[in-house]
Amino acid sequence: MNTVAQLVKLVRDGDMDGARQAAAGIECPGKSLGSPDDVYSIMRETTLAEQEEVWLLYATHRNTLKRKELVFVGGASASIVDVAVVLRKVLLSGALAFVMVHNHPSGTADPSPEDTAITRHIELGATAIGVTLLDHVIIAVSGWYSFKDHNLI
User: Fold this and answer.
1) Which of 39, 55, 73, 137 has a C-alpha 20 to 30 A away from that of 32?
2) How far, rounded to the nearest angstrom, does the alpha carbon of residue 45 sit from its chain's CA centroid?
3) Over its length of 153 residues, how does the chain's per-residue pLDDT go in tens digits?
4) Are the beta carbons of 31 and 63 closer than 8 angstroms?
């Protein structure tokens, strides 16, 4: 687990990639995961990334943030998401629910067909192992897109 002090040191040293990875392991207890606006406020900094990043936000039984974790980093326009890796990480976290978040460096939050397909696969897998995918939120400079709000979860 990383500490805030470690994160601050990385930022001061100019190691932004290291700082972003360190931030993935910092607990952020108590922040609500109740809406895409809440998720966007937690993950807003990823709109500045030059490549796609896929994060998991692990929820408490009250749907507040327990911890966030960076799980995949892709290129400027895509990231490979392995369903088995996502589900294994959720199980290892001990969370019974989670939100998947990824950014679109292009600036638009509209989902691609691949985004929609992977969301469906993760939702089916999560249901099969007894955990809940609360939402998949795509964030970009232009705003956010919620699969839950569009009745796709």
Assistant:
1) 73
2) 12
3) 455 456 556 666 777 666 666 665 555 556 778 788 888 888 888 777 888 889 999 988 888 888 888 888 877 767 788 899 999 999 999 999 999 999 988 888 899 999 999 999 999 999 999 999 999 999 988 889 999 999 988
4) no
d(CA 140, CA 103): 6
Q: Nearest 10 degrees: CA dihedral of 110, 113, 115, 120?
A: 130
DSSP per-residue letters across 102-143: EE-TTS--PPPHHHHHHHHHHHHHHHHHT-EEEEEEEEETTE
| DSSP per-residue letters across the chain | ---HHHHHHHHHTT-HHHHHHHHHTS--TT-B-SSHHHHHHHHGGGGG-SS-EEEEEEE-TTSBEEEEEEEEE--SS-----HHHHHHHHHHHT-SEEEEEEE-TTS--PPPHHHHHHHHHHHHHHHHHT-EEEEEEEEETTEEEETTTTT--
